[in-house]
Amino acid sequence: MRGLKILVVVMGIMLIVGFAVLVAAVVGRMSRSGSSPTTARAFNGAAIDIPRGARIEAMAAGTDRLVLALALPEGGRQLLILDLATGARLGMIELRTSP
Q: What are phi and psi of 79, to 5 degrees?
């Protein structure tokens, strides 16, 4: 009977210590994380060059890309792809009608 009492006390202490270690690990990871999901990133306000006389007809945003549909003054159309994090121009796609 005495052995059973010692076993129950030891297991109870192990349970309390394990719970304390778990709480300490969670608190430690939360304090070390550099950016939380609610923290906004700094916005880089870089200028975006579009052809003179062009106008933006539509925009579509993904997780890290912005696509601008441009109507050119000569009647053509282009898609301008931008990186949202840096504002860098990733590419331009010219849209043509098939003959």
A: -110, 125
Q: Residue 81: which residues within 8 A CB-CB, separation 6 or more? A: 65, 66, 67, 89, 90, 91, 92, 93
Q: What are phi and psi of 71, to 5 degrees?
A: -105, 115
Structure-token match 């053509």, residue found:
76
> 83 near 64, Cβ under 8 Å?
yes
Tens of pLDDT, residues 49-68? 888 899 999 999 988 899 99
Average pLDDT over residues 8-37: 85
Alpha-carbon distance 47 to 96, whole Å? Answer: 27
* β-bridge pairing 55-61 and 89-95: unpaired
